[in-house]
Amino acid sequence: MNRLFENQSIVITGGGRGIGKAIAFSFAEQGASIAICGTNESILKETASELESKGCVVMWKKADVSIKEDVENFSDEVLKKFDKVDILVNNAGIARDNLLIRMSEEEWNSVLNINLKGAFLVTKSLIRPMMKAHYGRIINIASVIGIRGNMGQANYAASKSGLIGFSKTIAREFATRNITCNVIAPGYIQTEMTHNLDEKLKTKILEQIPLGFLGESCDVSEAVLFLASKSARYITGQVLCVDGGMVI
After folding, report:
1. CA atoms of 16 and 45, how far apart (whole Å)
2. What is the reported pTM?
């Protein structure tokens, strides 16, 4: 079988669960070696074990992407293990929802630090090997909330909107090195978070989605694989909404 990412090394932040885990498994099925990081050591270890059971070469490390030292230590171990990074997926993200009038400075800072500063630190720490190789694919996981905004999510919307602007700038700065940078903006995807939503709220959400159903993690991971593939070699600085038509 022709595996699209044979002999390629993929770094996925927040790769232990949810969308990040789905992305890791999609790349693993296509022959890639995977490096994941996150803040929950037991979840990372479990995901790594599952990937290894499928024959994937895996490296994992507990790391907070908002802390420079954590990021540098993780990046050093990635390069020791794989000697290169072909594809980076900045997926790590959190939400701390509250109305602006009630939002604390800590709620604002924690979301901006993980969702936006984290992408900055990880990208900066891994861009040099890509530059040296004259090849790289960076895919940043934002959100439709970064495009349209949402009540009670000023911090989250700002972080994801900032990630889009960051990505467009990276695309311009490194295009001459054959490094592309694109954004996936998921809509409502079925995860642990959406599973616990009130039924009335779910109904309201579905009314906003022209296709009439929530997406799944595989919808996002397949989009990531496309942007990382040779088929997307002439695409950079773009935002691909995987949202069932929410943002049309």
Report:
1. 8
2. 0.96
Distances 242 to 64, 105, 148, 174, 233 between C-alpha atoms, Å = 27, 31, 14, 25, 20
Q: What gap in Å lies between CA 72 and CA 159, rounded to an integer?
A: 22
Residue position matching structure tokens 């579905």: 206
Three-state secondary structure of 1-13: CCCCCCCCEEEEE
Among all residues, which ones are annotated catalytic?
Answer: 156
Mean pLDDT over 24-38 rounds to 97
10 and 33 in contact (C-beta within 8 Å)?
yes
CA distance 239 to 107: 26
The whole-angstrom separation of Cα 136 and Cα 232 is: 12
Instruction: Give the residues across from 136 on adjacent strands.
Output: 179
Residues 6+ apart with CB under 8 A from 205: 188, 197, 214
The answer to whether 178 touches 167, Cβ cutoff 8 Å, is: no
**Inter-residue contact 213 to 244 (CB < 8 Å):** yes
pLDDT the model gives residue 51: 98
